[in-house]
Design goal:
This protein has 10 helices and no strands. It is mostly helical. The C terminus is likely disordered. This is Os08g0320800 protein.
């Protein structure tokens, strides 16, 4: 599940039972078995109750590729709930919510359009700045900050997964040896595995052997 959607889905939001079968909003599957209707309800609950501050909405809507998948369903579903809501107070809350989300959504879309233009035309930055100076406002730079955090998150998760797949053979061997239950057998296996041999070309073989062996022995005693 995409991180932005996962964050909303796992916040404990509950879909509205009165609107669970709106045909316009059930086209396609959501995530982890949720229907589009349920996902849209979770977005509404998230925006209205869990994170009512608009500054937090921007942190979520910055995930454009994910949001664009759900955006048309979200607005359709919001309008459907507005039309079916009998409570005038709740109806007004839904109307205001939909307008606010749309306003921020449009602002972020404009920021993304400017960012894409800069990225695709690095040699024309001065001209772009001159033509669109008013668009380089605080909101745009705040958006860049969110983008950087998103990029750093993806770098972190990708690197973490890559490191898992390229762990050195020595680490895999060490994990195997450390799982030997009998202390004497384990120590003997460690001594054999890390004893220097003719095939080793380390500059300081004795230091390598002693350090690894002693560390493992002290760790397990």
């Amino acid at each position: 599940m995409p991180p932005a959607v996962a964050f909303v889905v796992h916040r404990g939001c509950v879909a509205s039972p009165t609107i669970a079968n709106v045909d316009d909003c059930t086209e396609g599957e959501g995530a982890l078995g949720y229907t589009m209707t349920e996902i849209c309800d979770k977005f509404i609950e998230f925006f209205m109750y869990k994170k009512p501050q608009t500054k937090d909405w921007r942190k979520l809507l910055v995930f454009r590729e994910e949001w664009e998948r759900y955006r048309p369903y979200f607005y359709k579903h919001s309008q459907a709930r507005i039309d079916m809501e009998n409570d005038s107070s709740m109806k007004q809350k839904l109307v205001v919510l939909a307008r606010k989300v749309k306003k921020i959504d449009d602002e972020i879309e404009k920021h993304m359009e400017l960012f894409t233009q800069l990225r695709e035309n690095p040699t024309d930055i001065n001209d772009i700045v001159a033509r669109r100076r008013k668009d380089f406002n605080g909101g745009f730079f705040q958006h860049l900050n969110f983008l950087v955090k998103d990029i750093m998150y993806h770098i972190y998760t990708t690197t973490k997964e890559s490191l898992k797949s390229i762990s050195p053979p020595e680490m895999k061997l060490l994990k195997y040896l450390l799982n030997i239950e009998d202390p004497e057998e384990r120590f003997g296996a460690l001594a054999t595995a890390f004893s220097p041999g003719d095939e080793h070309e380390a500059k300081d073989e004795d230091a390598l052997y002693t350090d690894l062996l002693m560390r493992c022995h002290l760790l397990l005693t």
